[in-house]
Design a protein that fits this description.
heterodimer, A: 308 residues, 2 domains, 5-stranded antiparallel beta sheet, 21% strand, B: alpha/beta, 5-stranded mixed beta sheet, 4 helices
């Protein structure tokens, strides 16, 4: 891992960061073709053929109880089961995604499982959409062109857009690499100092940044760490690739830690990292999905408004 | 008391590139998150964690000086990082309790 992020690396990381601002619900297909248990395999095959889709969820009162893929149809066809009800042939152990999670969780899910689609459910566990890699590609392309348009708009009127980023850097963090953890925070501190930000504010931003940086290094499989500074605020986003936090409320409780002895020997693992980061932030958001990763966003206002 | 006066307590100065200002107090802890949460600007940090992360945290929290107890040596990269940040580094054969008592008495003297 080089000490300085390479420009090429930067662009790859930027693509990843595009996805952070999006949630599954922003990109999923809302028009869903679902069937009930009483439909036959032939019904499903007709739906697939007429709509050019390759997977159909089976629902019971809006809850997903199974899924039928093209593969299941083939098997039923070969074995002469096309007039059976879907319940006999559907896969019942369905992996769904919540509509509220960051798009990056969906990306992790696609790389972890061999499924080519995930039914998307809301908080009540009701089917609200379906997501495929195609949705993700389209969303990223759309987001890229939106950002390009923004850049072009801004370049014509440099005096406009009072909150244009003055510093935006993305870092890659590696598991247990305590040697380089803190790089982003040190750079952030330097940037804020150079801009004449009050020391108290710098300290808060740096603490939030450092705690979140250490968290990714100590507790995750690695991830990305983005620091953005504009005239108004510092925005820190830490995204890792897993394993996810089983109990976010517990993790936000002071003194709770899952750190091992080695992490403790590095001076960390007091169970204060997340509470510290939240305490010094003006806005704080955390989302975690088991096996999919954790996203933490912390914002510190640069203007001396609300004293914390 | 000035930072340099820590030497009069039997502490050895390992990194002397710092501005010799008055210490406003001290904080004793080995948990770096705890240090970040509670150490106040201008205090001396008394710890057994003699590594680079300690300097990063001391710098973030505004510590003026760091004392490593139990005679723990500090690697060159630790001292270089401290020099870059202008943080004084000392070590002492004392344990944290004794080092803390010494500093506390000297501050009250």
């Amino acid at each position: 891992m080089s000490d300085v992020p390479l420009p090429l690396d930067q662009s790859a990381l930027r693509i990843q960061e595009l996805a952070y601002g999006l949630k599954v619900r922003d990109v999923m297909t809302r028009k869903i073709f679902a069937v009930t248990r009483t439909c036959t395999m032939r019904d499903v095959q007709t739906i697939m053929k007429n709509n050019g889709i390759s997977g159909v969820p089976v629902v019971d009162d809006a809850h997903v109880v199974g899924i039928i893929s093209m593969n299941d149809i083939m098997n039923a066809f070969v074995n002469g089961h096309m007039d059976d009800g879907v319940a006999r042939h559907m896969v019942t152990d369905v992996q769904t995604l919540s509509d509220e999670v960051p798009l990056t969780f969906a990306m992790s899910a696609f790389s972890k499982y061999s499924f080519r689609r995930f039914p998307v459910v809301n908080q009540k566990n009701e089917l609200v959409g379906i997501i495929t890699p195609r949705n993700i590609n389209l969303a990223l392309i759309r987001e890229l062109s939106r950002q390009l348009d923004e850049l072009e708009d801004n370049s014509g009127h440099p005096e406009q857009g009072g909150s244009k980023p003055v510093f935006h850097q993305i870092y890659r963090l590696t598991r247990y690499d305590f040697e380089h953890a803190g790089r982003a925070s040190a750079e952030l501190k330097k940037q804020l100092k150079a801009r004449g930000i009050p020391p108290k504010v710098i300290r808060r931003a740096a603490i939030a940044s450092y705690e979140l940086e250490i968290n990714v290094v100590a507790h995750s499989h690695g991830g990305t760490f983005a620091v953005l500074v504009d005239d108004e605020r510092v925005r820190i986003t830490a995204n890792d690739f897993g394993p996810g936090i089983p109990d976010v409320d517990a993790a936000m409780t002071e003194g709770f830690s899952t750190a091992n002895d080695w992490i403790r020997s590095q001076g960390f693992g007091a169970g204060m990292g997340l509470p510290n980061a939240k305490r010094v932030s003006d806005e704080f958001e955390i989302q975690s999905g088991i096996e999919m990763g954790t996203m933490v966003k912390a914002i510190v206002y640069l203007k001396q408004g609300e004293q914390r | 008391m000035k930072i340099s006066e820590l030497e009069s307590l039997g502490f050895t100065c390992l990194q002397d590139q710092f501005e010799d200002i008055d210490l406003v107090g001290g904080y004793t802890s080995d948990l770096l998150s705890d240090v970040m949460a509670n150490l106040k600007e201008g205090q001396v940090l008394i710890t057994i964690q003699a590594h680079k992360n300690t300097i990063a945290v001391a710098s973030l929290s505004g510590a003026s000086a760091v004392v490593f107890c139990h005679g723990r040596p500090a690697a060159d990269d630790v001292l270089d990082a401290a020099a870059a940040e202008g943080i004084a580094v000392f070590n002492t054969p004392d344990n944290q309790f004794d080092a803390t008592v010494k500093v506390s008495r000297a501050l009250r003297a």
